[in-house]
Amino acid sequence: MTETPLRLGLVGLGQIARVQHLPAIAANPDFRLVAIATRGQTDVPEGVALHSSMGEMIAAGGIDAVVLCTPPQMRYALVRDALLAGLHVFMEKPPTQTVAETQDLARIAAGTGRTLLASWHSMFSAAVAPARDILARRGMQAMRIDWQEDVHKFHPGVDWFWQPGGMGVFDPGVNALSIAVACAPEPLFVRAARFRVRPGEQTPVAADLAFATPSRETGFDAHFDWDHQGLERWTIRWTLDDGGVLDLSRGGGALALDGKTLLDEPDTEYPRLYAHFRDLVRSGRSDVEIRPLMLAADAFSLARRD
Fold first, then answer.
1. Which residues form the Gfo/Idh/MocA-like oxidoreductase N-terminal domain (predicted)?
2. Contact criterion met (CB below 8 Å) for 66 and 89
3. What is the domain partition of the chain in residue ranges?
4. What angle do CA 157, 158, 161 make, to 5 degrees?
5. Which of 88, 93, 223, 250 is catalytic?
6. What average pLDDT does the structure give for the chain?
């Protein structure tokens, strides 16, 4: 017997929604996009209702779940209202502007019996599972993250990143942090951070972090740069306990061990995420991972600012 497709309402029609969410929804027969809530008039797919707010969309009825692609500063109230209205919720990363807000939403979801997904899409990249398995077997004595891209290329004209709660370079940087915590065989702690903040802005455009683990105090660091010129660099290099080198590149699309390619695959993160959301809804579970957001929050707490 075929399950009835889950009827989705999408809130926020920015670049990430258009580039990733709309194609992933359209390609999955377990979902049907029935409504979009966004500011102003815009083109929407044929047969999809357009609303000016999520409240208006919920009042119109006919949806089972909402997908939140709004800035994180406004996310908490929207997710709370959707859960209390009896809807399942898929949150684009970062889930909210604070750890406490995400934790409270997990509490509300449990109380209402609805599914809540904090969608760290990079955790669903092809390299994560094999990297985690290798690190579990062979240990980790060092780690270097380099996450560098040009914000103007991927988010032209967007300024909420530079306001309190916008996270600045950690908006893309949490992708690396999500991979790091998913793969590391033991917890990661931020030990030091240095931010570069441009005049008139409140969040960093670049950052350098030092990490520790319960067994090692040094050897783990990261460089994030959202003002990078040239080809994007989304890499993590782990030095294994036996001296081997594990290289993740293309944001998790490729993985090599001691220079030998283990995998090199196209981007399938969002299709995998939506399959995961479907499985969570069908089994009555939630997935509210907070460790990437906690590491970013710890960096803000410890940072020296230039």
1. 7-116
2. yes
3. 6-121+269-288, 123-265+297-305
4. 145
5. 93
6. 96
How far is it, in rounded angstroms, from Cα 226 to Cα 175? 13
The answer to whether residues 69 and 92 touch, using CB atoms and an 8 Å cutoff, is: yes
Strand ranges of the sheet holding 49-51, from the earlier edge strand across to the other edge? 49-51, 31-37, 6-11, 65-68, 88-92, 116-119
Task: Report d(CA 270, CA 119) in Å as an integer.
Answer: 9
HEC per residue, the chain: CCCCCEEEEEECCCHHHHHHHHHHHHCCCCEEEEEEECCCCCCCCCCCEEECCHHHHHHHCCCCEEEECCCHHHHHHHHHHHHHCCCEEEEECCCCCCHHHHHHHHHHHHHHCCCEEEECHHHHCCCHHHHHHHHHHHCCCEEEEEEECEHHHHCCCCCHHHCCCCCCCHHHHHHHHHHHHHHCCCCCEEEEEEEECCCCCCCCCEEEEEEECCCCCCCEEEEEECECCCCCEEEEEEECCCCCEEEEEHHHCEEEECCEEEEECCCCHHHHHHHHHHHHHHHCCCECCCHHHHHHHHHHHHEEEC
In Å, how far are 39, 70, 141, 223 from 203, measured between CA atoms?
Answer: 25, 18, 31, 15
Secondary-structure class of domain 123-265+297-305 per CATH:
alpha beta
- Choose between 44 and 126: higher pLDDT: 126
The pLDDT of residue 185 is 97
pLDDT of residue 271: 97
Q: Fold for 6-121+269-288, please state it.
A: Rossmann fold (3.40.50)
Give 253's Cβ-side CA count (13 Å radius). 10
Residue 88 predicted with pLDDT over 60: yes
Q: How far apart are CA 123 and CA 173, in angstroms?
A: 13
Cα 22 from Cα 50, distance rounded (Å): 14
Q: Note if 93 is an active site residue.
A: yes
